[in-house]
Amino acid sequence: MLVAISAGDEHSCGLEPDGVALCWGNNDHGELGDGTTVSSSVPVAVAGGHAFVEIGAGDDHTCARTADGGVFCWGGNAFGMLGDGTTRARLSPVPVAGDLVFESLTVGRFHACGLTADGTAWCWGRNQAGQIGDGTPGIDRREPVPVAGELAFSVVDAGQTHSCGIADDGAARCWGANEFGQLGTGNTIASPEPVLVAGGNAFAGIRAGWDHSCAWAADGSGFCWGRNDEGQVGDGTTIDRPEPTPVEGGLAFGAIAPGWSHTCALDIDGAAFCWGSGGKGELGNDAFENSPLPVAVVGGLTFTAISAGDDHNCALTPGRAGYCWGQNDEGHVGDGTLTNRARPVRVGG
What we know:
four-stranded antiparallel sheet; mainly beta; globular
């Protein structure tokens, strides 16, 4: 059984009810955290004996949070994304520097962010496009630094080269790269500090993907913006959108998870839908083709949580079973095979 799950680039991770972390997939940089660099197509236990309450898988690194607010990371560290003050890869968990107490954690492709009790967002890792948000693009951060602007956030999420959050004033803000309009400002001007998302929408949640972002309102209305060459915005077109655009299909969403060039979501009843790139099976509809509009994930399962990675996704059922689908050449679907899956398969086989 799993109580949390996260899909990264070529690996995935989850948490058991007692807080033990499990990871599976590619392990070239130690991102599985088991003390080796041996990849695994089935879950393996993360070393160290820690009990975690939250976990996030990035490109070649992973971070997790303990109940007392400590954050540990492991795997690749070329840009300082482990937050331990070095650029040395780690095969098992090491604590993030700074003795900060985090109430939430989010892991992007090569950076990570967390929120402290006062709503301050702290980020660390790669910063070539300003995704750390401290106003210093091009300067990677090996330890957590506060996001500029003295904003108090209720939600923050790290993507590939940008990040987004919802401040306590209810307004959505994003920062970092913006070549496809992923900051949602109505233009393609990058910003190394938080800028307001256009449209004045009040969002209940927001997520940053690779080159696009998505959010949903309290009434379930879904919006995406940014890169849309594969239909990942979900408006029925392949035109990039520099500001929030409604997801078509008349669905009411409880969660949306943007990945690389696709997006998946849960409606308010827990049914899964995906849209965008589908060549690796990542739409979960028993096909290997794109769709610029939401399509139902097959299998009749309902989920309580969903996470989109590079070209695969993972989700949890109410019974705490983990399911993944999509690209699987490194075993990151976790079913013991290396076969791409166009429908959900249970983690562990």
